[in-house]
Design brief:
The protein has about 100 residues and is of the alpha+beta class. The chain is built from two helices and six strands, in the order ββαββββα. It has two domains: about 55 residues, no CATH class; about 45 residues, no CATH class.
Length: about 100
């Protein structure tokens, strides 16, 4: 399983952190640099005041993607590690039924 983590960059004058989902700090930094280039260099790297790393927990970590809640299931179960909440719940309920009947 890949070690995907959330890298949260706290920047002066921006209310919420900019979050990069990556396997390493180096990858996250490169993603932030690329984002900055796409938006025309608006972000000043010297304005980064903090970087926090969050480990994703299977079945607990979530995010909103395309207006729908997604749950972290890990790369063994999904290409990007995320499943829509309703699909995740279907799997959990199915597994519970199998354990009960097993």
């Amino acid at each position: 399983m890949h070690n995907i983590k959330l890298y949260k960059y706290f920047i002066n004058n921006i209310d919420k952190p900019i979050v990069m989902e990556a396997e390493s700090r180096e990858m996250a930094d490169n993603m932030l640099i690329s984002l900055n280039e796409k938006i025309g260099g608006y972000l000043k790297m010297s304005n980064i005041v903090d970087v926090r790393v969050q480990t994703l927990i299977v079945g607990e970590s979530s995010k909103i993607k395309g207006g729908k809640k997604h749950i972290w299931v890990g790369k063994d179960y999904s290409n990007d590690g995320w499943l829509e909440e309703n699909k995740y719940l279907e799997i959990v309920i199915k597994n519970k039924k199998q354990q009960k009947n097993g």
